[in-house]
């Protein structure tokens, strides 16, 4: 079970980051910093403990910093300040070869924009992680086919990504991350393009992975019902800042402020927590 610790991570996008960082430390808000420095505040002093073997959900409005946060965990983004510890080691210390290894073996990711390799078939995309690790084509195929079937794409294994719909591409990205069989899976809006039935199935699959294989899953969603159903813990971001982190019932019953309360009020009422 892999634990992740985010320690005082700030990320400023833009050349004038020193002034912008200083402004965040003086309590200036994101809009003011953008107006004065031209920099976007991606994250502002975020600290989080992500327990091993559970599903950890990140929520927040568009632009609140969800993708930026999750991309720090596999170092697709480097922080302006702060550190990220995965099982106690600082990912910023990884040398290029160790970083490649870390991404192949420890952490897989489902990208918000799918991130498929356009000239490879569905099956080749799905088994990519296993092949990089040295598995032969024949040995990788049954693993790939199992996940292609799980996400409902049996029969499409030899198609190329451009021959698929958006939701199908999303499922290929999902199958690829699950086939890689890493301890940590980062899922950036991984279910957003799925229809409700497949979405519910995939939520169940994730809960199974959590229960049986003790994967650490960091899951971004806009959907509060989904967050409440699958999250052991939920973190809520606003303008790059962490506004609350808690269990589904803590979020529902004691929202930290009006922003969280507004999320909770719009809740349709379905989707009971699986972490009672
Ligand atoms: N590469 C970049 N260059 C400049 N600014 C960026 C970059 N990536 C993100 N940002 C800024 O950082 C902030 C957070 O963006 P991020 O993509 O993390 O939001 P998000 O919560 O994932 O939103 P969405 O729900 O729309 O995917 C935004 O203000 C955005 O403009
Ligand atoms: Mg995003």
Topology readout:
Elements: E1 4-13, H1 17-25, H2 30-37, E2 40-50, E3 55-59, H3 66-73, E4 81-86, E5 89-90, H4 96-105, E6 107-110, H5 122-126, H6 128-132, H7 137-150, H8 166-179, E7 184-188, H9 196-213, E8 216-220, H10 224-230, E9 233-238, E10 241-246, H11 248-253, H12 258-265
Parallel strand pairs: 3-8, 3-9, 6-7, 7-8
Antiparallel strand pairs: 1-2, 1-4, 4-5, 9-10
Helix pairs in contact: 1-2, 7-8
The structure holds adenosine-5'-triphosphate and magnesium ion (MG).
The site of adenosine-5'-triphosphate has 12 residues, from β2 and α3.
EC number: 7.6.2.9
Domain ABC transporter: 4-264
Subcellular location: Cell inner membrane
Average pLDDT reading: 93
Give the CATH class of one domain: Alpha Beta
What spatial order of strands do you see in the largest sheet? 6-7-8-3-9-10
CATH superfamily of one domain: P-loop containing nucleotide triphosphate hydrolases
Helix vs. strand class: alpha/beta
Distance between the termini: 21 Å
Main beta sheet? 6 strands, mixed
CATH topology of one domain: Rossmann fold
Strand percentage lies at 15-25%
Number of helices: 12
Small ligands present: adenosine-5'-triphosphate, magnesium ion
Number of strands: 10
Shape: globular
CATH architecture of one domain: 3-Layer(aba) Sandwich
| H/E series | EHHEEHEEHEHHHHEHEHEEHH
**Low-pLDDT segments, ≥5 res:** none
Give the radius of gyration.
19 Å
Helical content band: 40-55%
Keywords: ATP-binding, Cell inner membrane, Cell membrane, Membrane, Nucleotide-binding, Transport
Enzyme class: translocase
Main location: membrane
Protein name: Quaternary amine transport ATP-binding protein
